[in-house]
Each structure stands twice: as structure tokens, then as C-alpha cells.
Amino acid sequence: MTSTSTAHAISPDSGQHWTEPGAWRVAEGIHRIPLPLPMDGLRAVNVYVLETEHGLTLVDGGWAIEESRTLLEKSLSEIGFGLRDITRFLVTHVHRDHYTQAAVIGKEYGAHVSLGIGDKPTLDLMHHHDDVDEDPTLAVLRTAGAHEIAEKWQKFTDGRMPDLSMWHYPDTWLDGDHEIEIGTRTLHAVHTPGHTQGHFVFADHADGILFAGDHVLPTITPSIGFEPVPVEQPLRDFMASLTKVRELPDLRLLPAHGPLAPSSHARVDQLLDHHEHRLELCLAALAGGPATAYDVAGELPWTRHEHRLADLDEFNGALASMETKAHLELLVARGQATREVTDGGVVFTRA
């Protein structure tokens, strides 16, 4: 589901496409810097720069690639700063386009890096990859019934080791909802598991803005159920976190991907409605009889263009299979479906 196409979205702070390079003023002392994701369909990640008397705090860091670092330096210079002025990173979650550049620059310049403790199992897995027989994602794909995708995923990932120079542990683990003082500004750190278990958003009630990371995106829905260390009910966690953000005041939405949006409440309502609709579609697909998540995913439309599962590439086919499994597991938790573990994967049946 989308409200507008991300590919054509204009951001109100720049008056241009949201990926247009620059340091765009969001509010007094806050700028948005879009950084490139050259091998990613999202195209860019928004990094937010908060000025204080004692240096800069950045919400998210970008992906640790040369193009991103070069543009970050150039954009900071436009507002009179450099990398040495960064004193702190508040990272919304552990995904590479948010965390890795913060980890690298933090180590190089002594900037303090904070990350949600719920993402510690992901970093632990990377730092102890020799103790793991295979990528845990393969097991999730197999239980989803996506065996052909799992085979292709295994061929792609075999022998690929994480570059630990980009995956340092943070200086501080964020744990539970709490306040963070950034100069004269107070940010309310709100734990929002779902997209990842360690995801945090940061609310500035005085300025009426929400640094939303990937939890609330204005034009696309965040992926659910795609974590190196799987959890039992990622969709339940995500929807509960959306409800939690809905209970905050209505704030201007500052997302990690896409343009600024005027109302966090409006977008949260759309996302909750979207997933309730997807749950209905999943339940309807089970009317034809017992099925795996992969079978059900094949019955559903994907993306705003309503593609079929067979039209997606392996990566997006994997995301679709795992997200469908997350929806079906929530139907089981709600008593609307049952599950049975078989050799071919978990088979779901309408209750």
C-alpha cells in the first residue's frame, strides 16, 4: 500500500524530489540529508542533523559506502560543519543503511553511537558467524514453504562474511522508553519493535516532530518478519508499536525513506488499516484449504502495482513469503487459523 509513489514524491522541506542531495532545513537547528543507496530500490535514506552548542547529533548514519560518506561530508559543509563536528549518533535500528556508517564514523572520530538493545542478537550473530551452520533466514523461508527461494538465497549468501569493521557494537544500548537530552532539546526515545526488535523512534514534542526511522514510512509499508534472528510474532509487535505511536500527540513525520509528511496519526491509521486488510486477504486465501505462507503469498497482490509473487525477484519474493508468514502467524494467535509443522513447511488452516 502507498499513499503516493515514493519514486515521484516531493518533500515539502526542499520542494524537490525527496532524494535530491543537500542539507534541507526541517526546523530550527534540524536538517535532513538524503544519502544514496545505489543498490537498493529505496534509492536513499534520510539522515537528520541536530545542531547543539557542543556538536552535532545525527539520527541514523547511512550506509557505509564511499558515495554516502562523500555526500554526507559535502552536505554538512553546506551548513558549516564537517564529520569531526558529529558527537553522537542515535540509530533507529540495525539495518545497514541506518547503522553501518554511524559505526564507522563513530569509531573514527569518537562519536557516541546508540542502538536499541533488541538488535543486539543481530550483531551477536554477525560477530559469531563462525558458530552458525547457515543463514537463519533459510530456516524461515523453508518453514514458509518457499523452498526454491531458499535454495537461491543459500547460493547467494554462501561464503559471504560480514565486514565487522562496519558492524562495531554501539557505545550505548537503548532500553525501554526514556528521555534523551540533545543540547536544549529533549527527545523521547520510544521503543517500537516490529520492523526490527530493537527499533526506536524519537519524538520531539516541543517542535512537534517524530524521527520515525522505518517504523512509519509515508509512501510504503516497512518489511515485517525479515530479521537474522527471527521472532515469534513480528506483525503483532509492529501493530502494537503503531498503536503506541498513535497514542502520542499528532506529530510531523520525519521518515527514513520518503518525503516529510504532516501527520503521524494519519499515516499510522493507514498502516494499521493496510495490515488488517492483508490479514483479511490471507484468511480468504485459506478458504481454499490448508496452505503454506508461500502458497498464500502467491494468491496476494504485491506492491502498489499489484504484482504477482511470480513476478518478483528472489529478494522481494523472500520478503513477501516471510511477511505473509507473519500475517498467518497473527491469524493463529487471534484464533482465526491453525498451524501444523510438516516437512514442506508450516501449513495453515482456516479455523
TrEMBL record:
SUPFAM superfamilies: Metallo-hydrolase/oxidoreductase (SSF56281). One of its GO terms (molecular function) is hydrolase activity. Keywords: Hydrolase. Residues 44-257 form the Metallo-beta-lactamase domain. InterPro entries: Metallo-B-lactamas, RibonucZ/Hydroxyglut_hydro, Sec-metab_biosynth-thioest, WH-like_DNA-bd_sf. It comes from the Bacteria. This is Glyoxylase-like metal-dependent hydrolase (Beta-lactamase superfamily II).
